[in-house]
Each structure stands twice: as structure tokens, then as C-alpha cells.
Amino acid sequence: MAAAIEEWNLHRRIALRILMLVGVQPARLILGMMLTTSFLSMWLSNTASTAMMLPIAMAVLKSLFGDKETSRDLKRENEESQASVHQNKLHTVPTEMQLLANVDEKDLTEEKEVTIEVSSDIQKEEEHKKNVWKGFLISIPYAASIGGTATLTGTAPNLILSGQLKSFFPGCDVVNFGSWFVFAFPLMLLFLLFGWLWISFLYGCISLSWRKKKSEIRAEAEARARTVIRDDYRKLGPIKFAEQAVFVLFCLFAILLFSRDPKFIPGWASLFTPGFVTDAVTGVTIVTILFFFPSKKPSLKWWFDLKAPNTENQPLLTWRKAQESVPWNIILLLGGGFAMAKGCEESGLSVWIGGQLDPLENLPPAVAVILITAVIALFTEFASNTATIIIFLPVLAELAIRLKVHPLYLMIPGTIGCSFAFMLPVSTPPNSIAFASGHLLVKDMARTGLLMNLMGVLFLSLAINTWATSIFQLGSFPDWANIHSENTTLLVDVQNVTLNSMSKL
Predict the structure, then answer these.
(1) Which residue among 180, 360, 478, 486 is least crowded, i.e. fewest CB within 10 A of its CB?
(2) How many CB atoms lie within 10 A of CB 32?
(3) Which residues are within 8 A (CB) of 81 and not within 5 positions of it... i.e. 6 or more apart?
């Protein structure tokens, strides 16, 4: 589905349209960038969303402030004006002009004050430009990471959770596309709002003095940015039939996923045998339509006109495009993760690691969630989020059984916490793409990302202890976890008997 959206530039049209609606003030533009990137990241990969939005951001920034060459010219002009001030300080007054000395000194003082005032204004604008540039670029990868958590297919850790739940707890049916979206979408909006406020405040896009008059330089820059966005949108031309078809199929795709089994009312899956229809049925059905639905509006005249040319019509999605766009390496990685998790379970490694976490049994579950999320968020700063969740999910499942809490109470925060990697360029591919632009420093990401990580941990703890409790029935220990607990106990007993017999030998 994402490949078809990218093929017909529907994502670019959506992005530019949102930017036209939010306005061109720096704070509003950052909000528009974050909303657009997070929405696209819900359906596309985080890396693709970031790679698509960064060129748009760079074009808007250049229209706002110019490129680096303009910055150098302003800096050179500033140095020349300062040099003229020093030269004026060394200017000697001839003796024959003594009578007019007071007037000359007064004029000279006024000239120096004007020059210094203009110089300070240029320095302030340069500092403002640098900060806004950083705020723009750093907000895009952060929004991509946050947006990917809102859907079950938005990022790899969410898919791994869905797959490993079926492996660990075959009787668990509370996690599907609709229930996950109802839980994660409000969390995403809350995190985006506070993340936008933090980035805008840190980089000077929101001023505490609300009544401060806007400078003429900034007003002209914002007018140029508005023109650039409108010109880019106009270049896309009128909406094509292919874009309309992809948009309708995308909406149908989302509606079918949400309404399959929403839990609070019977979904359309209740019309079939239980377990016969899953989210994969919706995906395969819509994608199959993409492969044969025409990209140009079919004409009924072709059927009646014998002389009409028999030209081939391109479908909305070709297999060549699917081969190029679908990340097959991620699918292989997911499969390897499922195999590794099953190996940890069958060998008893996850049981042993869970047994080493006995100190957590004495903590309240809410505190345990905060600690687990913080540890995983720190771990994923240096490791792949996919590898991190593959390692931690089996351990969290066994720990939940030991604590006699709902397994999802620990597994969901651990899964989403893997996406909260904001502090380092190497933490996620979106961070690396933004850092490669050359305008960000490591200390910029560390300073901004530290509070983002803390906010993510706190908001996730709030969500799992409030509305997630009713969505996933986290208040009680489920029966399907009891069955897994009995199997685990049996496995431990068998291992103990084996070890005892080996020690006797």
C-alpha cells in the first residue's frame, strides 16, 4: 500500500496541503512538519517518511532564510560594518576644525550607534535562523519515530509484538489493528503536542513575549516560504485518476482494518468462522486490487469502437515497483526474530533471565513499567530497535507471569519504548538521515532528545495505567497466560529433573 502511495506522489500532495493549511510562521511550520511526518509514518516506513519530508523542509528553509552562501555574505557584511566602526574610532580631527568638533563627535556617535544597532540585529537574525533550521530538521525524525507507534504496522517492533504474542500466548486475541490504534493514537497526539512545544521553545520558534513585533526580515521570509509551498503544490498539477484511486483504496484499507474486530462492537469478522479472518486478509485483498486496477480512467467507448487502439494500461502497482519498494530484509529480520524468540522460550533461556529479575517482584507494577521502559529506551539508543525488542520481549513475558500481572502490561510499554530513541544520530535511521544534512550536532540531538525520552517514558506510563487498562483488560491476569504459566512450570520441572540426573551421573 505504501509503495502505491509513493508511486503516484500522493504522500507529497498530502504533505504540501497540510503545510499550506497550518501557516508559515516557524512554530506553525514545525507543527505542520511533525503532523505530516507522523501521519505518513503511520502507514509508510519511518525512514521513507523522513527521506520524503526532509527535501521539503530544506526548500522551505532556504526560502525563509536563504542558503549558506547568503549567510556568509551577511556575516562578511557584519564584519565590514564592525571594521568601519573601529576605523571611525581612530579618525583624527584636524586642528582647523576644532570649532565644529562637538557637532562632528555627535554625528559620529549617532553613526556608530546606528551601525552597532544594525550589526546586533543581523546577529540576532543569524542566531534565529540557525536555531529555526535546527528545530525544523530535528523535528522530522522525532515525528517519524513517534508516528510509527500509532499503528500495528507502523514500525517493526509493533509487528514483532503481534507475531510473538501468537507464539507465546496463542489464546491472546485482544491485540489487533483497531484496538492498537485506539490505544496508541491518543498517546501519539499527546507526545507530538508536548514534543512540538519543547522543540519550538528550545529553538526560539515560540517566544515568551507574545506581543513582540515581527521584524520586516522575518515577514518577508515567511511570504517567500508561503510562495515556495504553493508553487510546489501547483507543480503537482490537478489530482490524477491514479491518485484518487489509491486514496479511495487506502481509505477502504484503513476502514476494513479498524472495523474487523473493534472489540467494543462486533466487527465484520464475526460473519466468518472465528480465526478464519485476520488483518492479513484485508492487506492481501486490497493489494491484489492494486495490481490490476488501471491507473488511467477506463473509457466505455473502447468496448464499442472497433477501431480503438488496443494499448496496455498501467496498473496502480506493478510487481517491479513492489520488488524495489518492499523492504524484504525487514521481513527476513522479523522471521529471524520470531525464530530467536521461540528458541529462547523452548530452551528455557527467557525463564532463566526472568528469574534473575527477582528484585522487580517487590516493586509496584506501575514503577516496574517506568523502569522497564526507561531501560529499553536507553538500550535502544545504541542498538537497533528491532534487535532490542527481540531480546526483551521473551524476558518481559516471563517477568509478567512471575509478577502475576497481565503480560501486555509489560510487553506493550517495552515495545513502544523501543521507538523512543531520540538522543543520538545512530539510534534510528531517521536520526541518521537528519544528522547527515550537516546542520545538526550531536549535542543538539542529545540536549533535545533527553527530555523527549523522559516525556515518552512518562506519557507511556500514563497511557498504560489509564485508557489502555480498559482497552486490553489489563486489570486481571488472563486465562491464556495461566496456560502458558503451567507450560513454563512444566518446562522448568523437566529441566530440574534433567540437571539432577546429570549431576548424579
Answers:
(1) 486
(2) 24
(3) 115, 118, 119
